[in-house]
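Design job #97: recover the sequence.
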């Protein structure tokens, strides 16, 4: 399967790009309490991996382990992107919890988190760790964040406007959705209700 990306404001001489290879990584937490329900992040990830694989994309279902998640996830992403090329596209999809960035009272970047069995999070990754690995890759990147406050992943890198640090000509896009894909009961028929991207 081939994909063409068009954009009028790309910082490159090419207005259209064709990709030789499209790869996808689906990220979600291992042991997320929401997975105990009828429909949670793990179920959504499995369905997405199955669909993308049918499209012919090389796809990886990555379970973020709560023990040392920062180092393990960063290493996994570095290994996956180390040999990437400019004519490749990597789609990174995260489904789970997101926490808003803040400047006060204590500066905090956008974070992805695993919900604990009690109120509060029991495992956290600051998004700049993930973003810095993806920025360094030679391939183009499209990130989909299916979580709360996902827009903060783009707006707040290190809580400073320090700009993009990737290779020249690289395209990096971030799309965020508000909350999980939900299901609702309409006239006794369960239908998917998808969140809006912004």
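Job complete. Output follows.
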């Amino acid at each position: 399967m081939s994909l063409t990306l068009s954009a009028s404001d790309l910082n490159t001489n090419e207005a259209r790009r064709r990709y030789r290879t499209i790869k996808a990584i689906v990220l979600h937490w291992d042991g997320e309490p929401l997975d105990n329900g009828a429909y949670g992040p793990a179920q959504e990830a499995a369905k997405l991996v199955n669909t993308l694989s049918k499209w012919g994309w090389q796809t990886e279902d990555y379970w973020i382990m709560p023990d040392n998640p920062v180092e393990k996830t960063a290493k996994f992403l570095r290994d996956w992107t180390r040999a990437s090329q400019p004519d490749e596209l990597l789609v990174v999809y995260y489904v789970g919890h997101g926490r808003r960035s803040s400047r006060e009272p204590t500066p905090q970047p956008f974070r992805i988190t695993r919900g604990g069995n009690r109120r509060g999070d029991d495992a956290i990754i600051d998004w700049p760790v993930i973003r810095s690995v993806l920025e360094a890759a030679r391939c183009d990147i499209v990130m989909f964040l299916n979580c709360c406050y996902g827009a903060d992943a783009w707006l707040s890198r290190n809580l400073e406007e320090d700009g993009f640090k990737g290779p020249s000509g690289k395209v990096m896009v971030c799309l965020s959705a508000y909350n999980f894909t939900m299901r609702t009961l309409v006239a006794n028929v369960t239908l998917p209700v998808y969140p809006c991207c912004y």
